[in-house]
Amino acid sequence: MTNEKLAPRLEDYLETIYLLEKKNGVARVKEIANERSVKMPTVTDVLRRLSERGYILYEPYGYVRTTEKGREYAENLYKKHEVLKDFMKTVLQLSPEIAEKEGCLMEHHLSKETVKKIQKLVDFFREKGLSEEFKEFLWKG
After folding, report:
1. pTM here?
2. Sign of the C-alpha dihedral, residues 35, 36, 38, 39?
3. Burial class (CB in 10 A: 0-12, 13-18, 19+), 131
4. Are 21 and 27 in contact (CB under 8 A)?
5. 1 and 69 in contact (C-beta within 8 Å)?
6. Cα dihedral 60/33/77/96 (nearest 10)
7. How far apart are CA 56 and CA 3, in angstroms?
8. Phi and psi for 115 in degrees, rounded to 5?
9. Residues 56-64: contacts with CB within 8 Å, 24+ apart?
10. How far apart are CA 56 and CA 12, in angstroms?
11. At what angle do helices 112-128 and 68-90 cross, to 10 degrees?
12. Ranges of the chain whose pLDDT falls below 70
């Protein structure tokens, strides 16, 4: 995988494309715009940038697909997102809504090494049954 780091905004779009592609086989500009809550011209600009960098295949008015490079980048990003969301729900006892939103914010800034350690912490909490114990501690006040 390339060591190139995309801006968080581009990462969010790439992840959206990846998830739509997993769900539907391909992504469409309109679907991406709906998922991101933006207008289609905004999506088109981002798609052009991702295409120029080799992360997606995109022809105007056509389907959008990730390249191998884009898929690998998006998969790694999505894994980070899932680990962080799990951490916030399991260890920090946050609601699924907050965990989703804040996991998305954090995924852009944490290294692979940090996320691996967070995953180990979540695994430790589960293995030792500490989630409930920590939940009680949190709410004791």
Report:
1. 0.87
2. negative
3. middle
4. yes
5. yes
6. -160
7. 17
8. -65, -35
9. 56/14, 56/17, 63/26, 63/27, 63/28, 64/17, 64/21, 64/26, 64/27, 64/28, 64/29, 64/32
10. 13
11. 40
12. 1-3, 141
In angstroms, rounded to a whole number, what is the distance separating the alpha carbons of residues 91 and 104? 17
Residue 90 Rama label (left phi>0; alpha psi -120 to 50; beta): alpha
Comparing C-alpha atoms, which of 66, 85, 84, 88 is closest to residue 6? 66
The token duo for 7 is 């801006």
pLDDT digits (tens, 9 = 90+) for 66-88: 999 999 999 999 999 999 999 99
Residue 44: what residue type? T
Question: Distance between CA atoms of 134 and 66, rounded to whole angstroms?
Answer: 41
Given the structure tokens 């539907």, which residue do they identify?
24
* Per-residue H/E/C for 36-79: HCCCHHHHHHHHHHHHHCCCEEECCCCCEEECHHHHHHHHHHHH
Tokens of 121: 């912490």
